[in-house]
Amino acid sequence: MSFLDKIFGSSEKENNVVEFWNKIESEADLDEVIRKSFQKKVAIFKHSTRCFISKTVMRKFEKEVERSDKDVEYYYLDLLAHRDISNKIADQLGVEHQSPQLIVLENGTVVRSASHHSINLDLV
C-alpha cells in the first residue's frame, strides 16, 4: 500500500467486509431490506471505499457492533459500485445522500440517520 493510499484510501475494492454485513448490490436487494424492516430493525451503512473518513468510521462502527448483542440486521452499500442504489435510497426513503451514512429502518420508515463521525451504535 502506498503512502497516499494510507492517507486517502486505496482505489481497490475492499474484500475484507466483516461477517455480519449483508451486501446491497441491486434494487431488488434494497426492496428486500425494506421488507425485512417490517420484521426487525435494519441498519444500512453507506460507505465510500475510497474515502479515508468513511473507512475510519466504518471500522469504529464494526467494532461497536461486534461487541453488541442488538437484534439488528446490518447492510452494507458500496457507494462507488452502486451509486444508483444510493440515489434510490435518497428518493424512496427521503434521506439526503451522505457518505459515510447510517440509516436505521423500522416498518419501512427511517427512524434515525447519521453521517460521518455522528455514526455510532446508539443510533441502532
TrEMBL record:
NCBIfam families: B_thiol_YtxJ (TIGR04019). SUPFAM superfamilies: Thioredoxin-like. InterPro entries: BrxC, Thioredoxin-like_sf. This is General stress protein.
